[in-house]
Amino acid sequence: MAPRVLTPRRLVLNAERRFQRARLVFGHGTDNARDEAVFLVFHALGLPFNVEEATLDRPVAAEAAASVEALVTRRIAEQRPAAYLTGRMWFCGHEFAVDERVLVPRSPIGELINDRFAPWLDAAPVRRVLDIATGSGCIAIATALALPEAMVDATDISDAALTVARANAARLGVADRVRFYLADIYPDAGEPYDLILANPPYVPQAEFDALPPEYRHEPALGLVSGDDGLDVVRRLLARLRPYLASDGVLVMDTGATSEAMAEAFPDLPFYWPEMTHGGDGISVLYARDLPAPRGDAARRTR
Ligand SMILES: C[S@@+](CC[C@H](N)C(=O)[O-])C[C@H]1O[C@@H](n2cnc3c(N)ncnc32)[C@H](O)[C@@H]1O
């Protein structure tokens, strides 16, 4: 029997079948075995995602097929997110370098960035943006690219993450407009921000302990946030007011912990945008809707 010719299409189908048999968990930029297979096989073969159909049926050289085999085998054996194997992930149409110092970019905030935050915010006058818990810098950098008039500050408590973020800003040509700070949530006080973005850690400890192996390759600091997942969010909201301009907006991703957050802060009138491309847990909070600080209320009633 003649040996079967290996083509990109056949390599993708083989990888997909093997991923399904291995019952891998997805959720780091893809949510199914087929997309994960395309991501890895195309990377190994150096194919763009908009490859011509005919290329998919052309024979692949033995050496290239071997590099696909190596990646697919590692994905299964190590249960490591594909992005850590390729060192790359796409976010808002930009390619970010990632490794295990940072979370794999996947926040639905990306959809709002692509829409320049419409209809939640008029982006035209936005000049000062803060991205809290920046990780790879994906949200800060994609926002700087979407809002060319804006200066973006970004914080993270992990120096290692900031090294990755700074390199991404330089590679994507926005190092002059995105400044990174090693800080616990907020940078040292400066002018208030028109827009604050945050994808903080929000996984409750017990949930983190039960996560599949894929998530255990990510820095725990980027996921866990105390017993109820709200430790960082609680401190972020408590200190928010002086950092937000009077017509400013906070956009936050708290994923599956959003219900707990809404319950924990009944006085904060969050809006919950429905995302076209999936992902719950994005909230929008306007500075004008923040309850009066206790001191002010007391003064007014005096
Ligand atoms: C969920 S990841 C988000 C990373 C990135 N923004 C993204 O969307 O991919 C959370 C990040 O928060 C950082 N972090 C954890 N606690 C923090 C704190 N108290 N202040 C600032 N950053 C913190 C972690 O180091 C991690 O990079």
List the helices and strands and how they pair.
Elements: H1 8-21, H2 33-45, H3 62-78, H4 82-86, E1 88-91, E2 94-97, H5 109-114, E3 128-132, H6 138-146, E4 151-156, H7 159-171, E5 178-182, E6 193-198, H8 205-209, H9 213-216, H10 231-238, E7 244-253, H11 258-264, E8 282-286, H12 294-301
Parallel strand pairs: 3-4, 3-6, 4-5, 6-7
Antiparallel strand pairs: 1-2, 7-8
Helix pairs in contact: 1-2, 1-3, 2-3
The structure holds S-adenosylmethionine.
The site of S-adenosylmethionine (SAM) has 23 residues, from α6 and β4.
Strand content: 5-15%
What's the structural domain tally?
A: 2
CATH topology of the largest domain: Rossmann fold
* Lateral arrangement of strands in the main beta sheet: 5-4-3-6-7-8
- Would you state the CATH class of the largest domain? Alpha Beta
The CATH homologous superfamily of the largest domain: Vaccinia Virus protein VP39
Distance between the termini: 93 Å
Unreliable parts: 296-302
Approximately how much helix is present in the residues?
25-40%
| Secondary-structure element series | HHHHEEHEHEHEEHHHEHEH
What is the correct CATH architecture of the largest domain?
3-Layer(aba) Sandwich
Number of H/I helices: 12
